[in-house]
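Lab notebook page, bench 4
Experiment: in silico fold of construct C2
Operator: M.H.
Input chain length: 153 residues
Purpose: comparison with the prior construct
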Amino acid sequence: MKTSEQIDKIAPALLAAQKEINNASKDAKNPHFRSSYASLGSVIEAVKEPLNKHGISVLQSLSAPSDGGASGLHLCTRLLHTSGQWIEDTAFSPLPKADPQGVGSATTYLRRYSLAALLSITQEDDDGNGASQPAAKPAVKPASKPVSNGDPF
């Protein structure tokens, strides 16, 4: 995490906003895993009004890795206060596919999770890594055979 040289104005504004921020509601469905999750829109809806009310805006920008390493995206999420003070953090995601759909998917995922993490809001991870494997089906236990003591009755 990085911050401006001073954070004495953004810190109390962020505290005031967080007192008003509710958790993001699970408003989207992942048909592949038959689960619900909080969409990017739901996360933005949960934080935007309280942040703006206290003079904080959210900026999110993409960049490619600067080290020439793995194919992926960096997403910087910055909370910018009307005083000019800021707090930011950068997240990285590899690209699932190196095409526009892969970039779009990784971008949405990074925006949603980065914003939620930076503002400490809860959104249960029903569509992320925890759900990347289908839920294990309970093993069917064979019916146990009755114990016979030799008595036919």
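Observations: The helical segments are 10-20, 40-53, 100-118. The longest strand covers residues 72-81.
Next step: discuss at group meeting.
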